[in-house]
Every structure is written in C-alpha cells, then in structure tokens.
Amino acid sequence: MHRRALEGCERILGPHHPGTLSSVNSLAITLGDQGKYAELESMHRRVLEGRERILGPDHPGTLSSVYNLANTLRNQGKHDESELMHRRALEGREKILGPHHPATLSSAISLATVVQLQRGRGESGVIRRHLRRALLRNPENTRPQSAGHALRRSQKTAVPPVHHGSQSSARSAGR
Questions:
Q1: In what ranges is there compositional bias, type Polar residues (predicted)?
Q2: I want to staple 6 with a disulfide (CB 3.0 to 4.6 A). Which of 23, 49, 80, 87 is the partner?
Q3: pTM reported for the whole predicted model
C-alpha cells in the first residue's frame, strides 16, 4: 500500500516534493518492520537527500532524517557511519532546537549508545553525564519523563544487542 501511495506521489507531486518524501519515510518504516534493512537504509538516504535539498541541512525535518538513518545504520552494525550521523544530528539539534529539547536529548542518548557499542563506556559516560546535567537544568522540558526514562534505560543496557527489529526508536524520536 505504501508503495502505491509513493508511486502516486512521485507521479503527481514529483520525486522531491515534501509530500513524496513523507511517503518514502512511511515506506521506510514499513520496510524496517519487515526486516528489509538494505532497502530501509536506501529509503532513509533518499529522504535525507531530498530534505537536505529542499529544507536545508539544519532544518528540524532534515535532522530527524539524519537521526533515522543513524539508527538504521546502528541497527545494521555500521557503527562508524552511525556515530558520524548521530554526531551530526546532535550538533544540529543543539544548535537549532537547543540543548534541552527532547529531540536533542534523544540524539545524545543514541550517540552515547553507539559510542558504547564501539568503544565501551568511556566516552559514552561523558555524553550521558552531559545529558543528565541537561535534564536537571531544563525547566522547560515538556517531556522530562520520556527523556529521563530513555537515559535510565540506556544506562541499564551495558551493550545493547544489534537487532534488526522495528524502527520504533526512529518513530518515537521524531522523523
């Protein structure tokens, strides 16, 4: 069904229209749920390239696409590239959304997780301490429970397994 919707969007709106890119993103989520990771990665790259071209590299929608691709790469065991993308998402979100925004905090948690997968607790602990301070200083955080819960969950998981399950983290952290 998502493929048919995408074909219609491409035909009527064109391949780079924001509506078409949203349709590609919906298809990507479905592909992740089906375990089609190579195609999932390809769709996330397509959305990212389109959003960079139309919205610019620092738009929150583009940064969500960076984040989604980074999670997909991590879940495939491509930790080096995932780390680069997570760093990009975090830096952009800190700059555009601020250090205390829930999406920024999700990026920090995800970066800490992928760094931990690569190198152990050293640098990931620094990132988590920064995140903890941000949570404590944030009187305007509209979802402190979700960010705090995610931090606690990330601390309990010494080295999370590389899994090829759904992209629920990408969905909950913002597309």
A1: 165-175
A2: 23
A3: 0.71
The predicted-structure confidence for 18-70, as pLDDT tens digits, reads as follows 999 999 999 999 999 998 999 999 999 999 999 999 999 999 999 999 999 99
Which domain CATH number covers 97?
1.25.40.10
Tokens 């990009």, residue?
88
Structure tokens at 106: 């999700």
Q: Is the dihedral of CA 153, 26, 75, 82 positive or negative?
A: negative
Q: Which domain holds residue 103?
A: 2-173
Where on the phi/psi map is residue 14: left (φ > 0), alpha (ψ -120 to 50), or beta?
Answer: left
Tell me the C-alpha distance between 48 and 52, whole Å. 6
Produce one character per residue of 30-61: b if its CB has 16 or more CB atoms within 10 Å, e if not: bbbeeeebeebbebbbbbbebbeeebeeeebb
| Residue 126 CA: distances (Å) to CA of 11, 57, 119 | 48, 27, 13
Nearest to 67 by CA among 94, 37, 102, 93: 93
